[in-house]
Amino acid sequence: MTEKHRPPAPTPRATEIDAFLRKLAATPARNGAGRGRLLFAMDATASREPSWKQAMGIQAAMFQETAALGTLDIQLAWYRGFGEFEASPWLASADALLARMGEVRCLGGQTQIERVLSHAAAETKVNKVNAVVFVGDCMEEDADRLCHLAGQLGLLGVPVFLFHEGDDAAAARVFPQIARLSGGACLRFDASSPRQLRDLLSAVAVFAVGGRKALQDWSGRRGGRVPELTHQVTGSRP
Q1: Domain holding 223: CATH number?
Q2: Contacts of 211 (CB under 8 A, 6+ apart)
Q3: How confident is the model at residue 3 (pLDDT cuts 50, 70, 90)?
Q4: Looking at residue 61, what is its pLDDT?
Q5: pTM for this model (two decimals)
């Protein structure tokens, strides 16, 4: 092959990203039933109040769908206001989670997704976190920093599942990158369809307890957008 027709060499950054994703793909995935730990993080700034109330109405499904697989523990985390970030104890029942969510009032402020990801990393170093759910509508932070933290979570085996409401351009650009680097998934959802969000959150709960095989089996019995989420995590066709 002549120099003229030789394909261009990959850039150093492209090579680094490919190497990272190969390393991430080799990270062992959770399989089998047991006790799953799910970090459920939500943006509780002012614009999120309708969706917060919606999530309260459907959160019991996450526990119900995992009952046959094993035990689900959920930690609720949220941010709001002027640098306020909170995380509950680990909760093992829908009633306990609902009570915690009912104590939160949304308050205007900027996004703190970096704190969510940093908290997830710190928690899993103490006791393994099987999945992170984040529900939000915008992103107002440094994208490179968030992607770096997502990559760290990927190497720790903690996938992030992001559910994006609305049409914020920064979130639409960065949320899928966080999902890819952590080994999770990113989907937009329509707040006017609570069943859609219920099914997606339940799918992540099933994954947290039973791993990829359980998610694939559960997805096969569901329609809607659950197969799309499953495809992003497992590579199987939706």
Answers
A1: 3.40.50.410
A2: 29, 30, 31, 32
A3: very low
A4: 76
A5: 0.83
